[in-house]
């Protein structure tokens, strides 16, 4: 065993065994999941009545933790009184719903888009376009103007009404939605904070259920999340906060490192994990060039025997269509897959990522086209047999909206599928089942598919109270856009936010900006979120990292990486 390995094991052991409260500052690939699950399975022991909450940012991470418990033959470690899930779900399940008045049911939405809530002054703007924030010092709520999209900024700037009027209209719209029984994650957090300060009758049961609460990926917690964690800590619930501040990529949703740092200080004890169990030395060195503070590269705990260099691919990014390899004119993805092949890495082990999905090869992406294109997408998802549950769910909702429009032409057309079912007086689950069956029985999308869909609509068995009126709700317009050849490609492609926490033998990062090199060389990762995004992307790689940049960016980047001792090759 070498020294790096021994140090990495020892550091993990410290994080597993230290008593809470505890802050764990971990580098990429530090084995946070291993540490958290080992801590849960090994101790400090919890009594029968006391459980531990393991909270992650994504459902996938929670599933991984549950799987680890099952793999170690400890299924009981996933059951009550323990809680393994997302922070969002925990706040709702453990901190809010037990305390809601019985006569006031609320539904948690993942976004205001689910009910198509709009703020309407002289033009409509979706309520989901406004980011609400809470000042932890004053408890005052505001809307982050800096997080408004470019499109919504233009709409507001050209409106007759000023920003303040839009803010109050957005607040009023949200209040009306609350009164109608809907909240999103932000409002659920406000309720949690209110209940946490309500007194012993609320906090007592929480303290007796949880001997420890562990929060992973805490760098992406919002200011309000950190406020909730601080409140839990101050109530005496042992808290373990695990974070990699360099990987913070959610500042648009109000994540802030300063508040996290304050919490780390308040917790009083920090364990550092600087060994990277995932990546090669070259990748650790490349990653170090993307973070602040001139810290030395993390140690590669298990470097591969042969280290491929970092590959820079000169790339052309057309306004529309696929990016191409500048020297050969082939799709850039093919050039990358060839490099992976040289190192014995199969396409199925490759990941292609970028900040924006628009630069990625289309694959299972929800299309933005007309209703026929959307329904055709639903058909492909449902018939694929391999799509994950969220995609199938979304596909059923696309079809359910269409069926409801056709069967109940007089019911309101706005609101969630659930709200439309309620308005039509039908059971939501029944409509979703019918939607699934309806799409499943359709033929494969083709140029005159719309006629087939409308024939199927007319002959489909109808739910109670359905009363179609002429062509209302039938499909019209242009035929569905055909799927692209890469739609069924064997490699994975996802934007940077979706690849967080994952790892792949080979990764291609597409960075189309025309100032990549200047930002990479002299930008401040503390202030430039793109740099942190690139950092996340690069650190997903185990053996091979390739970066597609504009041709004029290649030379300065090569010179810089070479100066920082990152072995690289222009491919
Ligand atoms: N003690 C260990 N022994 C063997 N393998 C380990 C150990 N710790 C971590 N690993 C492996 O290292 C890899 C990285 O671990 P993990 O995915 O938990 O990292 P992470 O800390 O969540 O990183 P990131 O924040 O970058 O996603 C995984 O393949 C994991 O199985």
UniProtKB/TrEMBL annotation:
ATP binds at residues 26-33. Keywords: ATP-binding, DNA-binding, Helicase, Hydrolase, Nucleotide-binding. The keyword Cell inner membrane does not apply. Residues 458-488 are annotated as: Disordered. Pfam families: UvrD-helicase. Coiled coil: none annotated. It comes from the Bacteria. InterPro entries: DExx_box_DNA_helicase_dom_sf (IPR013986), DNA_helicase_UvrD/REP (IPR000212), P-loop_NTPase (IPR027417), UvrD-like_ATP-bd (IPR014016). Gene3D superfamilies: 1.10.10.160, P-loop containing nucleotide triphosphate hydrolases (3.40.50.300). The keyword Transmembrane helix does not apply. Residues 5-280 form the UvrD-like helicase ATP-binding domain. PANTHER family: ATP-DEPENDENT DNA HELICASE SRS2, UVRD / RECB / PCRA DNA HELICASE FAMILY MEMBER. This is UvrD-like helicase ATP-binding domain-containing protein. It comes from Paractinoplanes durhamensis.
